[in-house]
Amino acid sequence: MLKILKHLGQYFIMMKKVISKPEKFKVFWKQLLLEIEKVGINSIGIVLFISFFVGGVVSIQTAINMSSPILPKYLVGLASRDSLILEFSPTMISLILAGKVGSSIASELGSMRVSEQLDALDIMGVNSASFLILPKIIATVFFFPFLVIISMGIGMIGAWIGGLSVDVTTADFLSGLKYEFTPFYVTYSLIKTVVFAFIIASVSSYFGYFTKGGSIAVGKSSTKAVVSSSILILFFNFILTNLLLA
Amino acid sequence: MIEIKNIEKYFGDNHVLKDMTHKFEQGKTNLIIGESGSGKTTLLKILVGLYNNDNGSVLFDGIDVDKMKRKEKKALRQEVGMLFQGGALYDYMTVEENIMFPLTMFTEKTEDEKLERVNFCLKRVNLDGKNYLMPSELSGGMKKRVAIARAIVMQPKYLFCDEPNSGLDPKTSILIDNLIQEITIEYNITTIVNTHDMNSVMEIGEHIAYINKGEISWTGSKEDLIKSDNKDLNDFVFASELFKRIKNV
Predict the structure, then answer these.
(1) B2-92+156-248: what fold?
(2) pTM of the prediction?
(3) Cβ separation of A122 and B78 shorter than 8 Å?
(4) Do A117 and B106 touch (CB under 8 A)?
């Protein structure tokens, strides 16, 4: 318990340092663009790939499990749409990105810590936490919602193609997609994504920033970052679902 | 000049620095020597502001750092250059970007002015023309020289070097030592070098402070060191057969 409190205290002290006015906006802007490329643009490929195939599998499994002839075929589109928007795109993609982006952030900051690059910044008078972590947080918080929107779209294309392979016609699938659509579900999904993005960037930065030791410690920080981010994502998923949908 | 007065530092129950008082002179290469774990890195980290001291005071040109306002501390940081053991160059930046970084962050110089200063510093460390290399493409000695160039780019008043020769061959070590000494004299700066390399001590040891078990137990020059009868110092400095023979001659 004491250890958790210590981590929490250190995390908030770090966040206080992170949220401060950048020394120079020109340099900050350059860092932000670099981070958008690293955490956002470089993740598009994996998001497209996973979303397409998971979308396809969701629709095939739904179709196979609807053995009763009374159930209309458009339910395949409906079920795929809701599972993608409500859970798969925001939560599962965030968990995958916690692995990809989170470990990359933690290992980058961890190696900078053990090779004294962070100390070099601090000695120069640069707020290393703000200089390195703030652009990462802003890049993830602003870019992840786009990734999730892309994931929803590609997932539905995958679901449509998957549906075609189990005799769900395009007309049935589209009618299911449009059936009793609740726009708030997309808002709910994006709210979750922003929270998850913040968790991934800040928690991973925390573990990387406070790495102590050598290269093995960098690996440990990276693992801790992914595990902690994933646990927090699942916890906040429960809380946010209760608050926004229940 | 940098002065420390009654500096003490604890890590839990471990009393790492015990009532240290010393003056590091301007325009001189001040060496801190001592065994691993004696407290020399802790002292250096207190001097550069990475650690806080539990007791005592650090004075830069007579001004107590603890009594400085935030703005004054920030201004002081820009007068400090630091050479790290591994160089601590930013991996994702080229040599030029590494050296230019402090200028970009803290000055309003134009790109041409910054480039001129970077090229001057690169030339000073005999690396002219290496602007576009990445740190991963440099040898250990070249990394140290780029780090020196970065440390002097803002024309610091104080230069701190932590084990500048670690991992370098004897010839490159002497090159780095001489470069540090030349820069110290040329810019009349206060340089503090943390080392346990005896070749460095014999090469540039004008003002040496020997730290033993958290205390400064001896001070003097390399000439004084050879004549010293301090047992701990002799055991540390003349540990090898070669140095024992030199001492006896």
Answers:
(1) Rossmann fold (3.40.50)
(2) 0.87
(3) no
(4) no
